[in-house]
Amino acid sequence: MSGNDVQWWLAVVGDTLIWARLSVLDDGLAEVFDSDGGTLRYDDETAARMALLDAEFRAFDGIDEDDAAVLGFDLEEIEPPRAEDDEDLLPQMVRKLPSRH
Questions:
Q1: Domain extents in the chain
Q2: How many helices (H) and strands (E) does the chain have?
């Protein structure tokens, strides 16, 4: 996927962090790789972003320390998943947050 614009989005449900990867392709189409291993296709980046926002995801690069605290995690401890391919990425797309006691 070289040359594509990739953005990481996250949602927190209870004590679980869920990732989604938004990729904008060279032709302007957008794809969201979700935690179920599916790839959803959209006409453009705006449509993909709206769908993610509707599903209560937030852009990872827009989150600061205060946002992270409200969501229940330490920004220093969280980074987007990394893998060679989507198959290896999938198990990392859902993660339990460390308990904050």
A1: 5-95
A2: 3, 6
* Per-residue pLDDT, 33: 97
Q: What is the pLDDT of residue 36?
A: 95
Give the pair of three-digit tokens for residue 28: 């302007």
Q: Which residues of 25-58 are buried (b: 16+ CB within 10 A; e: fewer)?
A: eeeeebbbbbbeeeeeebeebeebbebbeeeebe
Read off the tokens for 78: 């969280």
Picking from 17, 6, 8, the residue whose alpha carbon sits closest to that of residue 60 is: 8
CB 89 within 8 A of CB 33: yes
Q: Average of pLDDT values for 11-35?
A: 96
Residue range 66-77: mean pLDDT, rounded = 93
- For 26-29, the CB contacts below 8 A with 24+ separation are none
Structure tokens at 36: 């179920």
AA identity, residue 73 = F
pTM of the model: 0.91
Residue 88 has pLDDT above 90, yes or no: yes
